[in-house]
Design a protein that fits this description.
3-stranded antiparallel beta sheet, single chain, Ribosomal Protein L9, domain 1, 2 domains, alpha+beta
Length: about 130
């Protein structure tokens, strides 16, 4: 009897299903399963196909060179920075001639390359 009923619900699916088709089939299966958990057959093929597509996407994203997705910082651009700790005398020009005694709580507009080290050392924060 189970074989007869099972054959009524068995659906032959083409090999070239699109992701949209799988999404719709999965959506339908979830809706049907909510109300008839102990009657319907588990959609093993569908779940495995969707899982394979997800695994492929994860693998593909891991192979993507993330350096292409993250732009390089423009070190010569001015930033607004707040000192979290006293930093002592810091050069505020590219030649390193002009020095400023930077103290906790001070706020500056300055080229990022001049305070990059302070930000990386958690002595300053960009605001």
């Amino acid at each position: 009897m189970a074989d007869v009923l099972g054959s009524l619900f068995t659906q032959e699916l083409p090999d070239d299903l699109s992701e949209q088709d799988d999404f719709q089939l999965l959506t339908n299966a979830v809706r049907n399963e909510r109300n008839t958990q102990d009657i319907l057959e588990f959609k093993t093929d569908l779940v495995e196909r969707v899982q394979q597509r997800l695994d492929d996407q994860v693998q593909e994203s891991q192979l993507t060179d993330t350096r292409d997705m993250i732009p390089a910082p423009r070190l010569d651009r001015c930033v607004l920075v707040k000192l979290l700790k006293d930093a002592g005398h810091v050069a505020v020009d590219t030649e390193g001639v002009q020095m400023v005694d930077m103290k906790a709580g001070d706020i500056y507009i300055i080229q990022y390359k001049l305070v990059q080290r302070l930000v990386q050392q958690d002595m300053a924060v960009l605001i």
